[in-house]
Specification:
Elements (H helix, E strand, L loop, with lengths): L7 H14 L3 H14 L3 H12 L5 H17 L3 H4 L2 H14 L3 H14 L9 E5 L8 E2 L16 E4 L2 H10 L7 E7 L4 E2 L15 E4 L3 E7 L7 H13 L7
Antiparallel strand pairs: 1-4, 2-7, 3-6, 4-7, 5-6
Helix pairs in contact: 1-2, 2-3, 3-4, 4-6, 6-7
Amino acid sequence: MEFSPFNPVVKLCLQGMSMEESNKPDEAIQLFTQAWNEAEDDHEKFLAAHYIARHQKTAGEKLEWLETALEYALKVNDDAVKTALPALYSNISQCYKDLGNPEKSQENADLALQLKNNPSDKGPFYHGTRADLKAGDLLTAGGSSNYKSEFIMNHIYFTALVNGAGLAAALAKGDGQERVYMVKPTGAFENDPNLTDKKFPGNPTRSYRSEAPLKVIGEATEWSRPGPEELQKFREKLENSKGDIIN
Protein backbone atom coordinates (compact mmCIF):
# COMPACT_ATOMS: atom_id res chain seq x y z
CA MET A 1 0.00 0.00 0.00
CA GLU A 2 1.41 3.39 -0.95
CA PHE A 3 0.27 6.56 0.79
CA SER A 4 -0.89 9.16 -1.72
CA PRO A 5 -2.07 12.74 -1.11
CA PHE A 6 -4.22 12.29 -4.21
CA ASN A 7 -6.33 9.52 -2.67
CA PRO A 8 -9.95 10.84 -2.33
CA VAL A 9 -10.21 9.99 1.39
CA VAL A 10 -6.77 11.48 2.11
CA LYS A 11 -7.85 14.62 0.24
CA LEU A 12 -10.93 14.93 2.46
CA CYS A 13 -8.74 14.55 5.56
CA LEU A 14 -6.40 17.24 4.25
CA GLN A 15 -9.36 19.54 3.70
CA GLY A 16 -10.57 18.78 7.22
CA MET A 17 -7.16 19.66 8.66
CA SER A 18 -7.25 22.91 6.72
CA MET A 19 -10.58 23.71 8.39
CA GLU A 20 -9.04 22.91 11.79
CA GLU A 21 -6.19 25.33 11.08
CA SER A 22 -8.77 27.95 10.13
CA ASN A 23 -10.57 27.38 13.46
CA LYS A 24 -13.63 25.89 11.79
CA PRO A 25 -14.22 22.69 13.78
CA ASP A 26 -17.78 22.13 12.52
CA GLU A 27 -16.64 22.13 8.90
CA ALA A 28 -13.69 19.91 9.84
CA ILE A 29 -15.79 17.19 11.46
CA GLN A 30 -18.15 17.22 8.48
CA LEU A 31 -15.23 16.51 6.16
CA PHE A 32 -13.80 13.79 8.40
CA THR A 33 -17.24 12.17 8.66
CA GLN A 34 -17.54 12.29 4.87
CA ALA A 35 -14.12 10.61 4.68
CA TRP A 36 -15.37 7.88 7.03
CA ASN A 37 -18.51 7.34 4.96
CA GLU A 38 -16.52 7.17 1.72
CA ALA A 39 -13.69 5.00 3.07
CA GLU A 40 -13.43 1.75 1.12
CA ASP A 41 -10.60 -0.11 2.85
CA ASP A 42 -9.15 -0.62 6.32
CA HIS A 43 -6.43 1.99 5.86
CA GLU A 44 -8.87 4.70 4.83
CA LYS A 45 -11.21 3.80 7.72
CA PHE A 46 -8.28 3.98 10.14
CA LEU A 47 -7.38 7.48 8.94
CA ALA A 48 -10.93 8.82 9.08
CA ALA A 49 -11.61 7.35 12.54
CA HIS A 50 -8.36 8.88 13.82
CA TYR A 51 -9.49 12.38 12.86
CA ILE A 52 -13.08 11.94 14.02
CA ALA A 53 -11.76 10.87 17.44
CA ARG A 54 -10.09 14.19 18.16
CA HIS A 55 -13.36 16.08 17.65
CA GLN A 56 -15.32 14.11 20.26
CA LYS A 57 -16.62 15.98 23.30
CA THR A 58 -16.15 13.33 25.99
CA ALA A 59 -13.39 10.88 26.88
CA GLY A 60 -15.80 7.99 26.34
CA GLU A 61 -16.72 9.10 22.82
CA LYS A 62 -13.09 9.78 21.97
CA LEU A 63 -12.09 6.34 23.27
CA GLU A 64 -14.74 4.68 21.11
CA TRP A 65 -13.37 6.27 17.94
CA LEU A 66 -9.74 5.68 18.92
CA GLU A 67 -10.44 1.99 19.48
CA THR A 68 -12.22 1.92 16.11
CA ALA A 69 -9.11 3.44 14.54
CA LEU A 70 -6.97 0.85 16.33
CA GLU A 71 -9.20 -1.99 15.13
CA TYR A 72 -8.69 -1.02 11.50
CA ALA A 73 -4.99 -0.18 11.96
CA LEU A 74 -4.32 -3.68 13.29
CA LYS A 75 -6.00 -5.17 10.22
CA VAL A 76 -3.54 -3.39 7.92
CA ASN A 77 -0.26 -5.27 7.55
CA ASP A 78 1.71 -2.21 6.59
CA ASP A 79 4.77 -0.59 8.15
CA ALA A 80 3.43 2.92 7.52
CA VAL A 81 0.41 2.17 9.70
CA LYS A 82 2.44 0.31 12.36
CA THR A 83 4.31 3.54 13.09
CA ALA A 84 1.00 5.12 14.15
CA LEU A 85 0.40 2.53 16.88
CA PRO A 86 2.52 4.10 19.67
CA ALA A 87 0.63 7.42 19.52
CA LEU A 88 -2.67 5.58 19.17
CA TYR A 89 -2.05 3.45 22.25
CA SER A 90 -0.85 6.54 24.12
CA ASN A 91 -4.06 8.43 23.33
CA ILE A 92 -6.15 5.43 24.35
CA SER A 93 -4.17 5.28 27.60
CA GLN A 94 -5.03 8.92 28.32
CA CYS A 95 -8.73 8.27 27.71
CA TYR A 96 -8.75 5.38 30.18
CA LYS A 97 -6.93 7.59 32.69
CA ASP A 98 -9.58 10.30 32.26
CA LEU A 99 -12.28 7.67 32.72
CA GLY A 100 -10.76 6.46 35.99
CA ASN A 101 -9.41 3.12 34.76
CA PRO A 102 -5.70 3.12 35.74
CA GLU A 103 -5.19 -0.56 34.91
CA LYS A 104 -6.28 -0.20 31.26
CA SER A 105 -4.44 3.11 31.06
CA GLN A 106 -1.16 1.50 32.13
CA GLU A 107 -1.71 -1.47 29.80
CA ASN A 108 -1.98 0.81 26.78
CA ALA A 109 0.87 3.05 27.95
CA ASP A 110 3.11 -0.03 28.12
CA LEU A 111 2.14 -1.01 24.57
CA ALA A 112 2.93 2.50 23.34
CA LEU A 113 6.38 2.39 24.94
CA GLN A 114 7.20 -1.04 23.49
CA LEU A 115 6.47 0.10 19.94
CA LYS A 116 7.96 3.60 19.99
CA ASN A 117 11.03 4.40 17.89
CA ASN A 118 11.55 0.88 16.63
CA PRO A 119 11.08 0.93 12.84
CA SER A 120 10.16 -2.52 11.57
CA ASP A 121 10.43 -1.55 7.92
CA LYS A 122 12.69 -3.91 5.96
CA GLY A 123 12.54 -1.94 2.69
CA PRO A 124 13.56 -1.96 -0.10
CA PHE A 125 14.68 1.63 0.40
CA TYR A 126 15.17 4.51 -2.04
CA HIS A 127 16.82 7.91 -2.22
CA GLY A 128 15.88 10.58 -4.75
CA THR A 129 18.49 13.01 -6.05
CA ARG A 130 19.91 14.64 -9.19
CA ALA A 131 23.41 13.33 -8.54
CA ASP A 132 24.97 10.79 -10.91
CA LEU A 133 25.89 7.81 -8.75
CA LYS A 134 26.86 4.19 -9.20
CA ALA A 135 26.52 1.01 -7.19
CA GLY A 136 28.86 1.03 -4.19
CA ASP A 137 28.83 4.82 -3.75
CA LEU A 138 27.97 6.15 -0.29
CA LEU A 139 25.45 8.87 0.45
CA THR A 140 26.41 10.75 3.61
CA ALA A 141 24.97 13.40 5.90
CA GLY A 142 26.26 16.96 5.78
CA GLY A 143 24.56 18.25 2.65
CA SER A 144 22.27 21.27 2.35
CA SER A 145 18.55 20.73 2.76
CA ASN A 146 16.55 20.66 -0.48
CA TYR A 147 13.81 22.57 1.33
CA LYS A 148 15.80 25.15 3.33
CA SER A 149 19.20 25.66 1.72
CA GLU A 150 20.66 27.35 4.83
CA PHE A 151 20.34 24.06 6.75
CA ILE A 152 23.24 21.61 6.77
CA MET A 153 21.61 18.25 7.43
CA ASN A 154 22.93 16.02 10.21
CA HIS A 155 21.24 12.97 8.70
CA ILE A 156 20.80 11.34 5.30
CA TYR A 157 17.15 10.74 4.40
CA PHE A 158 15.47 7.91 2.50
CA THR A 159 12.10 6.24 2.02
CA ALA A 160 10.56 2.86 1.33
CA LEU A 161 8.23 4.39 -1.29
CA VAL A 162 9.82 4.62 -4.72
CA ASN A 163 7.39 7.34 -5.85
CA GLY A 164 8.20 9.35 -2.71
CA ALA A 165 11.87 9.18 -3.66
CA GLY A 166 10.87 10.29 -7.16
CA LEU A 167 9.16 13.36 -5.72
CA ALA A 168 12.29 14.12 -3.68
CA ALA A 169 14.38 13.85 -6.85
CA ALA A 170 12.06 16.25 -8.67
CA LEU A 171 12.32 18.76 -5.80
CA ALA A 172 16.09 18.41 -5.47
CA LYS A 173 18.31 21.36 -6.32
CA GLY A 174 20.44 21.28 -9.46
CA ASP A 175 20.10 20.72 -13.18
CA GLY A 176 20.97 17.04 -13.33
CA GLN A 177 18.61 14.28 -14.33
CA GLU A 178 16.14 13.11 -11.70
CA ARG A 179 17.42 9.81 -10.33
CA VAL A 180 16.06 7.32 -7.83
CA TYR A 181 18.59 4.96 -6.30
CA MET A 182 18.02 1.79 -4.32
CA VAL A 183 19.98 2.14 -1.10
CA LYS A 184 20.96 0.11 1.95
CA PRO A 185 21.40 1.72 5.39
CA THR A 186 24.84 0.95 6.84
CA GLY A 187 23.79 1.77 10.40
CA ALA A 188 20.81 2.38 12.64
CA PHE A 189 17.95 4.53 11.35
CA GLU A 190 14.84 6.15 12.76
CA ASN A 191 11.48 7.48 11.61
CA ASP A 192 11.83 10.97 10.11
CA PRO A 193 10.58 13.20 12.98
CA ASN A 194 9.72 15.96 10.51
CA LEU A 195 6.94 13.76 9.14
CA THR A 196 6.07 11.15 11.76
CA ASP A 197 2.87 11.86 13.72
CA LYS A 198 2.58 15.33 12.23
CA LYS A 199 -0.45 15.94 10.03
CA PHE A 200 -1.03 12.23 9.50
CA PRO A 201 -0.73 9.51 12.15
CA GLY A 202 2.44 7.48 12.10
CA ASN A 203 4.87 7.58 9.20
CA PRO A 204 2.63 7.12 6.14
CA THR A 205 5.35 8.14 3.69
CA ARG A 206 7.70 5.54 5.24
CA SER A 207 10.38 8.21 5.52
CA TYR A 208 13.53 7.57 7.56
CA ARG A 209 16.85 9.13 8.39
CA SER A 210 20.26 7.93 9.55
CA GLU A 211 23.53 9.45 10.71
CA ALA A 212 25.30 6.55 9.01
CA PRO A 213 25.87 6.50 5.23
CA LEU A 214 23.51 4.88 2.74
CA LYS A 215 25.11 2.50 0.25
CA VAL A 216 23.86 2.70 -3.33
CA ILE A 217 23.00 -0.81 -4.55
CA GLY A 218 21.31 0.06 -7.84
CA GLU A 219 19.02 2.44 -9.68
CA ALA A 220 15.23 2.28 -9.90
CA THR A 221 13.94 3.02 -13.38
CA GLU A 222 10.19 2.56 -12.89
CA TRP A 223 8.56 5.24 -10.76
CA SER A 224 5.80 7.80 -11.25
CA ARG A 225 7.00 11.28 -12.04
CA PRO A 226 4.77 14.06 -10.67
CA GLY A 227 3.13 16.28 -13.28
CA PRO A 228 4.09 19.97 -13.59
CA GLU A 229 0.98 21.17 -11.75
CA GLU A 230 1.43 18.69 -8.90
CA LEU A 231 5.10 19.60 -8.60
CA GLN A 232 4.35 23.31 -8.52
CA LYS A 233 1.83 22.78 -5.70
CA PHE A 234 4.44 20.95 -3.65
CA ARG A 235 7.01 23.69 -4.28
CA GLU A 236 4.56 26.40 -3.24
CA LYS A 237 3.66 24.46 -0.12
CA LEU A 238 7.33 24.13 0.82
CA GLU A 239 7.99 27.81 0.18
CA ASN A 240 5.03 28.82 2.36
CA SER A 241 5.89 26.40 5.13
CA LYS A 242 6.72 28.08 8.43
CA GLY A 243 7.61 24.91 10.31
CA ASP A 244 11.10 24.27 11.65
CA ILE A 245 13.18 21.37 10.40
CA ILE A 246 14.05 18.89 13.15
CA ASN A 247 17.73 18.35 12.41
